[in-house]
Predict the 3D structure of the following.
Amino acid sequence: MNYRKYSRISFPVIVLFLFLHFTTNPSHAFICSIFSQESSNQRLTIDVEHTNITILGAGTFGTAVGNALAYTGFHVTIWTKHSTHILEEINTDHTSEKLLDRVGKKIPLSNNLKGVLDLREAVQVADIIFFAVTSKGAAKTAEELSHVMHTGTPSPIIVSLDKGFGYLINDEKEKHPLRMLDIIAHYLPSPYSNKNLVYASGPMLAQEIALEKETFLVVASRNIANARKVQTVMNTAFGAEMTKDVAGTQVCAATKNPLAIMYGILEAAAEKNVLSIGKNTIAAYFTYALEEMQFLAKTISPRMYKRTVAGLAGAADFHVTTEGGRNVKFGKGTAKDYFDQNVLEEKLRVFQKRIQEIETSRKSEDTIEGIAATRSIYILSKQMGISLPIIETLYRILYEGARLEDELPRLVQLLPKAYPKTTPKGPLKDRIFIWGRNTYDLFFNGD
């Protein structure tokens, strides 16, 4: 008897039997939740008038999100320590120089939105605190928050809106990139472990949020109660989904910005009609960029689901960023300047000069996250021993002064070979987990 053959058949049969047994037995119903990305469709009811929300960061994005929630009836406090005049404008004129419509006119803000300079005042009565600072400022803000927030019962829920990788304060040489929730959890006291924090991401252009365009996002957390409450709050102004793939959602949010910079560079090459790059090339690049995003996310979060990259946190956010976000504008505008230069030395200085201008003139809550994220992801890829052709190419362009005439043709030729079909399936235990998830979907989700 070929025992090896029968063992291959019997193993999935046994797993399926146990799975169906547990999911049909109410006392073991929780078992099936480990296979589910989304929680149940239950929704909480929330007292809008008595729920206080604090936004840390008065940049474009933080102001837009805070204003949208304020218009639904929440009392929203927005804090920054850098821009006193912006807070004064919010409180007196109910506008912000950060939020302009498509013709440059200031967008009216809700009277429920209040700006404060004192961090303790901002968080002392907060039920939910949103981080909307840059990834570079996340560690410092988390440290300051740990000194002023109360840890009573119930403790406020912490939600990160930051899209990028960051570093701890004592990592002065920035050699150990961390995801946003890891940084926040490092500085905040118990009970703020990583699993209790919440991450929100998706295609959320600040201007469209401010103009009340329909917007959808995904809320990620391992703490289902916290995630469901944040989802309920966000559903008052947006369409909010839930996922347990916290790591994958953070990786997608951070990776889409460097990928968008490269998208902008390719767009500039197509418009300048150089290097044989056109719309066909850019369309193919979009697909390969998602492959690279999935490869990185799967490496960091082996149990992530493909729908994370294919969903709101991945493909949707990447798409909307390429349609006019700050990162794609930086890539496109800077690359155009590069191609306009006739002298090689001047060409090679274009990106470095532009990056320096951004670093010296940027406001703390508004920056081009993809520049720093490129370096962070490059470091991570080397530490993990993986190859990310797009990130590596962009790193050489931004940080090593590489010539676009050398790098872009090489990248275009390399991508089909780097990602011929799909990413590796991973080790056996991850394949079993994915198989169980797909089985659950087949029998219970119908998708």
Summary: Residues 48-244 form a domain with the Rossmann fold fold (CATH 3.40.50.720). The longest strand covers residues 52-56. Strands lie at 52-56, 75-79, 113-116, 128-131, 157-160, 165-166, 178-179, 198-201, 216-220, 239-243. Residues 1-7, 22-37 have pLDDT under 50 and may be disordered.
